[in-house]
Amino acid sequence: MKLLANPAASQQVLSTNTTPSVQKGRGRLLVVVGTYSIGKERICLGIAHALNSKIYAPPNKMRIVAALEDPELNALMTPDPRAAQVHMTPLFEIRADTLDDYLKDYFPHFTRAVGFRPSGWNYRPPTSRFLESPSVATVLNGENWKSAYAMKDLVPQRGSTSRASCFGVPYSEHSSFRELTMFCCALRIERIIPTVNVGSAKGRERMKGWCERWAVERKKSGVWKLPEDGGW
Fold first, then answer.
1. What is the pLDDT along the chain (232 residues), one digit of tens a residue?
2. Residue among 37, 49, 42 at smallest CA distance from 76
3. Domain DNA repair metallo-beta-lactamase, which positions (predicted)?
């Protein structure tokens, strides 16, 4: 398996060079992904596409997915857990010590399981990143502000085994600070009204400062544009 870099590093997905359902001598792999009541569906969709698989979810989650009215996602959903190599489960329920028990319910149809706990809280910025009042240009273009993530960064959580391994992965469907900076510098925005980090006078002042710095950067350098290769 390998990771394919998506323009948004937080949305990297698994890909495989082998027949997805059976690898010789290793049995059939089940991928279990933790989700919110609403949220994290896109990572399930990416994995399902990479494995050419359907997606299973319990009945209450199936109803929520249907309400999202996403044709691409709906086309892959199935109520049969054995017909899908990708399973959705509540995020709080997926742990290394429970994954093996989950696998037992579907053994021997599936013989191995990999669990993912996708959360922005799993992200750790590189130690080389300068966080104290970086310039807008540094946030936009600095290599250590680009959130690269690869297979080597996947570390199994305590309690994982060769049969059932659980991984915490940095994934969020919210914008990162760099993505927010890119957005605000790529459009000619007249006014920005922050709705987060404004619970205190200090927080409001800090957000006001960043809005002003983005405006100065646009005026000085023009609107920001993606590199020609489309990479972030």
1. 444 444 444 344 444 444 444 445 567 999 999 999 998 999 999 999 999 999 999 999 999 999 999 999 999 999 999 999 999 999 989 999 899 999 999 999 999 999 999 987 777 776 666 666 789 998 998 888 887 777 888 889 899 999 999 999 988 888 888 999 999 999 999 999 999 889 999 999 999 999 999 999 999 999 999 877 766 6
2. 49
3. 71-199
Q: Domain-by-domain residue ranges, the chain?
A: 2-130+149-174, 178-221
Rounded to 5 degrees, what angle do the CA atoms 10, 139, 228 make?
70
Q: Which pairs count as long-range contacts for 215-223, CB under 8 Å and 24+ apart, including other chains?
A: 215/189, 216/136, 217/136, 217/137, 217/140, 217/185, 218/185, 218/188, 221/137, 223/185, 223/186, 223/187, 223/188
Q: In this structure, what token pair is assigned to residue 231? A: 């990479």
Element containing residue 214 per DSSP (H, E): helix 201-221
Q: Quote the tokens at residue 204.
A: 């409001």
- Read off the pTM: 0.74
The CATH architecture one would assign to domain 2-130+149-174 is: 3-Layer(aba) Sandwich (3.40)
The encoded tokens of residue 95 equal: 């742990």
Rounded to the nearest 10 degrees, the angle between the axes of helix 201-221 and helix 177-186 is 50
